[in-house]
Amino acid sequence: MKARFIFILSLMMCMGATHAQDISLVFEDGKVGYIDTSGKYVLQTDFKKAASFSNGLAAALEDKKWGFIDLTGKWAIQPEYDRVNAFNSGLALVQKEDKWQYINTTGEVLKVEETEKYYDFNDGVALFKKGEQVGLLGTDGKLVVEPKFETIKKFWNGHAKFKKGELWGLINTKGEIIVPAEYNAVGTYSENGIWAKKGTEIGVLVDGKYTPIPEATKIWDFTSDSKLTYAKKGEKIGFVNKIGEWIIDPTFDKVRGFSNGLAPVMQNKKWGYINEKGENVIDYQFKDAETFSADGLAPVKEKLWGFIDKSGKLVIPMEYDISAGFSFLQKNAQKGFNNGLARVKTKKGWGFINTKGELLGDKWFKNAENFAPAK
Q: What is the full DSSP assignment across 69-124?
């Protein structure tokens, strides 16, 4: 049985990696449906409550019980649970008769040692608590790391913050210590850099060595979009690199991160854009501004939001509200365009526009969640 469970899980994950389809959960006429990136329904349901797809399944509520449907709308796992969480790493937490357990996408229960608290899987592992200590549980139900940590936070990019005493460090999904617990605070792992706080100083970790940044009082997380992140000095904000150098002097009141070579920055209550040399390339003229997407467009605001290109030209009129949606699984979820579509709102409801400003499917919904891979 255990070998069959592992085989099914591995097969499902491989299929998901090669046949991913982006779909969006939408609400229309009091019911839940799912559309593809052409705006067409891939599935219309009679459910009043359902969730987005993940790992090929979506939670749905029928007669006060939760189960999981597949992309045809059929029950893949019958509605018999009081509470359910989304699938991640091929497994989902479900509650039945006050008991939590993990199931795979066929509904089989993963045999694990009982614990006082259960955690969702993420990046292929789940936290496992025993007494006052925390370890890591693998998707096979076995402990990857015995409970020996005081605290472990959620994994991002295959790494998580852990606490020892009053100090913090970083581990990977094998429980190996990447950054020792020697810091009062530590940033989220990124290949472009990691910040850390030691005593009253704040700086960066370079090849495992801590380098303080002169006069910095706060540093934000590095991301995959740029080798620079922003940092505060006094009341102003500038940009530093991963070896702790001020690359762009702290002269701004507010900033957002670099993406597609440009960053939104604010001076005198107006937003504009700079390049990675610190040169102003789009004048300070907006009430608010967000980062550029890979599509080369960025949301900007006066009373409502519109979109500019990298020359600063307004290419989609300012007539929308925007939101990142319920993208709680994505750290620093981006507002604006994602793979050619942007989630926007008008008085008619929520919908998606393409980079030409055309409404996807010519339809507005009571709500519409961001597109994400169904599998």
A: E-TTS-EEEEEEESEE---BTTBEEEEETTEEEEE-TT-PBPP----SSB---BTT
